[in-house]
Design goal:
TIM Barrel, 2 domains, 35% helix, binds N-succinyl phenylglycine, Enolase-like, domain 1, 369 residues
Length: 369
């Protein structure tokens, strides 16, 4: 393909409920949807999963736009390329995985649409439906009763796995309360780097709750602390923010800092690198699962297909659209009452935005190339 035009639609979507993590609380999702048009007139869509502030990672929306416009897209301009070429073409540019992932996704979408192929079949999906997990934020009122109420709502909808966000001061007791209310539900916790090596013995207190895993308890750079924690506790240690490529994922596993991997395409520079991590882990018998970045339907479609790979043996953050948005910008992803979701089979990697909804939530449109 050859690029004719790339446009970013900056959209603001109110969340159905505030989403609070150890790094902040979000009421509205500000996200960039990428529309790439080829010289053949094929249109591909991608989603840039960065946030307005660099709080989950160093990446943020304004920086992603600059990276795409001034450093990544000029490398594709005027040349014939395939989606598989994109990582190599971008490789001289360091960092900015969410920006590069968004452009790679739009290119893959255009390529698959032109070929009439679904992303699930392209990437090697082995299932037609996937079990859904949900990520439950820390209640803004700090109340365990509110948390139980939120979890109860998700379980009644059918969710098959619950992930609790934790932070110092909101960790052992809320986890205990959820575990006693639902002794059998697959349960895990996510700290988004909120703890330090001083908390290793304290975090071992989570072992009594039979958790699937503890996700990213410490700073993304503190690999030794994660190894010490993994040696100390029975609950498997899963890494998210620390995992940025297949090479570093393998190092973290070899080092003993990581026993399960959360794969998020945006965090590792796109679905092609994400697939490499999946394949490496699958070959080594390391469980992986598909993380979420509060994607709109555009990006959610890709995650649903990714989560149906054979190595994704744990339920992902693959909730229905209504977990975050009403309405979604696309036709919504709807979970069945059995907690399962159909893997999309339509051509492409994204689901197309509905023009009227897109217009109503767009705050700015910018031509990037
Ligand atoms: O289900 O999409 C989802 C959200 C899952 O908890 C989730 N994502 O820390 O993993 C995370 C968190 C996140 C969301 C991080 C948005 C950064 C931005």
């Amino acid at each position: 393909m050859k690029i004719d035009k790339v446009v970013i639609h900056h959209v603001e979507m109110p969340l159905v409920r505030p989403f609070r993590t150890s790094f902040g609380v979000e009421y509205v999702r500000h996200v960039g949807l990428i529309e790439l048009t080829t010289t053949d007139g094929v249109v591909g869509w991608g989603e840039c999963v960065s946030s307005p502030e660099p709080t989950y990672s160093h990446e943020f929306n304004d920086a992603a736009v600059l990276a795409m416009r001034d450093h990544l897209l000029p490398r594709l301009a005027g040349r014939e390329f395939t989606a598989e070429d994109v990582p190599d073409v971008f490789s001289p540019v360091r960092g900015h995985p969410m920006a590069r992932g968004a452009l790679e996704m739009a290119a893959l979408d255009a390529q698959l649409r032109a070929a009439g192929q679904s992303f699930a079949s392209y990437i090697g999906s082995t299932r037609t439906e996937i079990p859904c997990g949900v990520s439950v934020g820390i209640p803004v009122d700090d109340s365990i009763d509110t948390l139980l109420d939120h979890v109860n709502g998700y379980i009644e909808q059918g969710y098959r796995r619950i992930k609790l966000k934790i932070q110092p001061g909101f960790d052992i007791e809320p986890t205990r309360a959820v575990r006693s209310a639902w002794p059998e539900i697959p349960l895990q916790v996510d700290a988004n780097q909120a703890y330090s090596r001083d908390h290793i013995d304290y975090l071992a207190g989570l072992d009594e709750f039979d958790l699937l895993l503890i996700e990213q308890p410490m700073h993304e750079d503190d690999l030794v602390a994660h190894k010490w924690l993994a040696d100390r506790i029975e609950t498997p240690v899963c890494l998210d923010e620390s995992v940025i490529s297949v090479n570093n994922a393998e190092s973290l596993i070899d080092f003993g800092a990581c026993e399960i991997v959360n794969i998020k395409a945006g965090r590792v520079g796109g679905y092609l690198e994400a697939k490499k991590i999946h394949d490496m882990a699958f070959e080594r018998g390391i469980p992986v699962w598909c993380g979420g970045m509060e994607e709109t339907g555009v990006g959610r479609a890709a995650n649903m297909a990714f989560a149906s790979l054979p190595g994704c043996t744990l339920p992902g953050d693959t909730s229905g659209s209504d977990r975050f948005y009403a309405p979604d910008v696309t036709e919504p992803f709807v979970m069945g009452a059995d907690g399962m979701m159909q893997v999309p089979t339509e051509p492409g990697i994204s689901r197309l935005p509905i023009p009227e909804i897109l217009t109503s939530i767009t705050v700015a449109t910018e031509v990037l190339a």
